[in-house]
Amino acid sequence: MAQIENPTRERILARIRNALKTPAPMHWTNQATHGMQPIFAPIPDALERFQRECAGNRTELIVTPNSSSEALETVLASLPPGEIFVQDAPELREKSSALHDRKDIRWSSEGAPHENSQATLTLAEVLVAQTGSVMVSAACGGRGAFIVAPVHIVLARARQLVPTLDDAFARIRERGTAAQNSYVCLITGSSRTADIEKILVMGAHGPRRLVVILELATK
Amino acid sequence: MTAAQDFLRNAATKSADLVHRQILRRGIDHYDAAVSSGRARFLDWQAAREKCQSIKCEAVNHLDRYLEEFERRVKEHGGHVFWAENAEKARRYIVDLAANRGVRTIAKSKSMVAEEIHLAPALEKQGIRVFETDLGEFIVQLRNEPPYHIVTPAMHLTRKDIAALFKEKLGGIDTDDPQQLVAAARHALRRAFFTAEMGITGANFLVADSGMVCITTNEGNADLGVTLPKIHVVLSGIEKIIPRMEDLAVLLPVLATAGTGQPLTCYNTLVGGPRRTNELTGPDEFHVVLLDNGRTDLLADPEQRDVLHCIRCGACLNACPIYRNIGGHTYATTYQGPIGSVLTPHLRGLNEFQHLSQASSLCGACTEACPVKINLHHHLLHNRRNAVERAHRLWRERIAFQLWRWSMMSATRFGVLGSVGRRALRFLYAFGLEGTPLDPLRAWTKDRSAPPIPTGSFRALWKEHDGAN
Question: Is the ipTM of this complex over 0.90?
């Protein structure tokens, strides 16, 4: 459908402008007695905080001093047979020794994951210590690539870890991540629901397990 | 029967329903515990509320500028923006779009605005299947019911209710184990996701400076819905705009904490258009429908403009002593609880929905709970005042208040009427007529015993004791 000219657009904007001729009462903006206070506690040790938050939101975090290949092999060995969908990135192509035994690798350059895919392996844009979150974009294997399979494995490096959410949004702005991708997702733990009697059930529509393998060494 | 009469009758039934009370209490107790530990994670929760209030205040008071900025960026990225003045126009745009594209199945995420404009029934009328993909919404859709709560739509059901429902409607399942019930819903909805030609979502925030829509879920259903179908439609109220992406760094933790007590919802997704040319997956089309539907009228009322700051977290519902007793369906409105009582008269008419302003003890728990500091209980008073000035009132209520006013204007009249009143009540009660239709205090005394009627007036007592107790 061609972009239809929308006469109601002008009417709505005119109504808004007319409404805003009367300013809002000043007390809304002037009562900020707490305004200058910090909202969140400072984070002295980002790695320690990230570990604690991951434990709290049930992210399986594996911290490795050097190469993550061994940890990746262990995680892959725990999976049932079936397709593993892998972000087609040089860093992950290098890991093919760990992926070597598995014949059912599907690289993201070959298209979207299959409905019965068993796991997704991607990189991340940023890790956030404050909330134990992983931020991915469409560049991480395609939009929503991680959401299909029951397990999402993320390979990350320590330099990707930032202390706060503020830092995370600042970083994706600086790097143009939000401008270059049609999709960004801040993931905090794996899919869950408490819609039945407020009882927590893991793996509602998305992954049951979120595994983060964090490599400390900086090459 | 009017909406007010329905409300009173259902409120009386629901508040006396012990099973309903127990389910509601368990749900809200669970929420209260989670929220109090959630708030403790903030160094200064009040500072967080004020920050969120100032963000929304900035956005709402420059709504035109931020909406235009948002629209420009969405278009730059190949998306479409449709401005809908009312429910009918928004519905027609989406229904026509679905019809033109030959859409037969839609995977829909939770959206209160879709409830507000009755979108799903309009699509189904055209023979399009609409799957609610949020588990709570899926459950109430199978029951053919509206959501019970803004955030937890199936809060009023036990796992036994849901087990019976799934056994009947989905088939092949006979268990009340939540794990297996969730697995059954996941299985049923997977097929819907992979066949749907269109995904419809709401928006938690529209980010002006990046032209992105922020959608929050715990289940990941919105991520499937914006990934697999070829068309993504976002339906949002115009007031959901925020100026900057960085504002999310405080809004998202505050929304999650006020909504469920979580530090952050599992999936906070930002979508800025259809898939780019270098992206392999994602929809080919992206449409944002911006809905007014009475919101600009609220904007024109500076006294209540801050109602547009609402981020739909549901905290005021959980805090409200009325909601805690009568539950969500009694309101018979899209938005329940204090925010619904404030908003509904603006969206659907003061005349028919003025009774909701009385569904309050004016205790202020809603205002205290609101993470963006909306002055909710004062707005209920504003609506009461507006109703007296502008709306249709019962003649006997008008006469009663005129009589009250007349008697209050003179000490003698007040004294005489007080004395007559006390004598009359004592006389009635002496004949055992307390709580009967003859009792003028029946609204109170039909379920409770009246306090002893004093023999003298307050002024007589004062005089007798010389002002001392």
Answer: yes
CB B237 within 8 A of CB B312: no
Q: What is the pLDDT of residues B107-143, one digit of tens each?
A: 999 999 999 999 999 999 999 999 999 999 999 999 9
By C-alpha distance, the chain A residue nearest B186 is: A205
B316, B370 contact by CB (below 8 A): yes
* B-proximal residues of A, 56-115, CB under 8 Å: 56-57, 108-109, 111-112, 115
Residues facing residue A141 across a β-bridge: none
Q: Each residue of A70-126: pLDDT tens digit?
A: 899 899 989 998 999 999 999 898 876 667 667 789 999 998 999 889 999 999 999
3-class secondary-structure state, position B426 = helix
A117: chain B residues, CB-CB within 8 Å: none
Our CA dihedral for B357, B358, B361, B362, rounded to 10 degrees, sits at 40
Q: How far apart are CA B289 and CA B122, in angstroms?
A: 16
Chain A contact for B189 (CB, 8 A cutoff): yes
DSSP bridge partners of A151: A209
For residue B258, the surrounding DSSP H or E stretch is helix B248-260
For residue B321, give the amino acid letter: P
With contact defined as beta carbons under 8 Å apart, do B224 and A147 qualify?
Answer: yes
Which residue is closest to B180 within chain A, CA to CA? A201
Q: Is the pTM of this model over 0.90?
A: yes
